[in-house]
Write a structure and sequence with these properties.
- The chain is of the alpha+beta class.
- Helices cover 41% and strands 20% of the residues.
- The chain has five helices and seven strands, in the order E-E-H-H-E-H-H-E-E-E-E-H.
- Strand 6 and strand 7 form a beta hairpin.
- It is globular, with a radius of gyration of 17 Å.
């Protein structure tokens, strides 16, 4: 599930026509391998308690021989900018399809791609020896603190 920090739910990727047109050049197996790899990376972020995914940090600079290679060589006709855009939309689609709650921001000074994050949780004591988890509303300030800005 994906929402903006203003809590507007995102149901479909941006530039859907471009995404669908590019995706058609990928085999089902290639596309599924990419989905599986992104889900593994996202789950690692959750398991490591970082709860942040930056789309431009994932694929690296050389996609040759990686699961991402068909994006560049097949889906986007060896056009780096289109491949980067498709990859970003692919990350967005995977996060839309996930069950947990994710938010996004675009921050050009921090990363070229979209920054996705999960709301932070904190534990507060209600009474002596009693703890209650309280969910904190997602905010850009919380995210900036994670990046150390």
């Amino acid at each position: 599930m994906l929402s903006s920090i203003e809590s507007n739910s995102v149901k479909t990727v941006w530039h859907k026509k471009f995404f669908d047109a590019s995706k058609q050049w990928l085999s089902d197996a290639e596309y599924q391998a990419m989905i599986d790899e992104l889900n593994r990376i996202i789950q690692n972020s959750i398991d490591d308690n970082s709860d942040i995914v930056v789309s431009s940090f994932i694929p690296g600079s050389d996609w040759s021989g990686t699961v991402w290679d068909p994006i560049y060589t097949k889906a986007c006709g060896s056009d780096f900018d289109h491949a980067a855009q498709f990859f970003g939309l692919l990350v967005c689609q995977v996060l839309i399809d996930r069950e947990e709650e994710w938010y996004f921001i675009k921050q050009e000074t921090t990363a070229r791609g979209m920054i996705y994050f999960r709301p932070q949780e904190k534990t507060e004591k209600k009474q002596e020896n009693e703890e209650v988890e309280v969910k904190v509303t997602p905010s850009f300030a919380n995210l900036k603190n994670k990046f150390g800005e």
